[in-house]
User: Fold this.
Amino acid sequence: MYEIMKGSHILIVKIRLFAKKSYIYYSTLKSNLMAIKSFQGVRSKEENKKKYDAPILVEDYMTKKLITFSPDQSILEVMETFAKHHISGGPVLDNNGFLVGIVSEADCMKQISESRYFNQPILDKSVERFMTKNVETIPHDMSIFDAAGVFDRHNRRRLPVMKNDILVGQISRKDIVIAALKLTSHSWK
Assistant:
């Protein structure tokens, strides 16, 4: 117990240890004790290690069942597939199953715009003409935090996920947001 003189009042300070926490109490000569601050005591080494069992890799949140397209497929067929399956893009694979590009609604907009400009119907042109050929990919074992950085640096809605140069899935911005929400719920247990 400490006594501190301030003006005409005497402040009495008591420090109590309860359940490994220190509490500071104060009172004047005329009032009851009141808690003003709480300090945590020394933690054991086991408590210092954060237990983190939530999945944080891209492969834990990516879409594995993909609708894929081929370079010689017609752009009309791709647009119909987008509408039928409520998707906005997908990877383009060659005959050997290797990634050669990605086609999106934005690529289809090029076709629609060209047909309007030249006053022609939407022709049966191939995906290869409109797809994005230089595709940014990410590895399956990348953390979702690093993947979020890739999405931030590049203006992409989805990225193909690769393992040993083979397409194993696709992750979207929405998947990253869902992963972040799940991680937040795991970390606040």
Observations:
- The two ends are 37 Å apart (CA to CA).
- Helices lie at 45-48, 58-61, 75-85, 105-117, 127-130, 144-153, 173-187.
- The first strand starts at residue 2 and ends at 6.
- The mean pLDDT is 76.
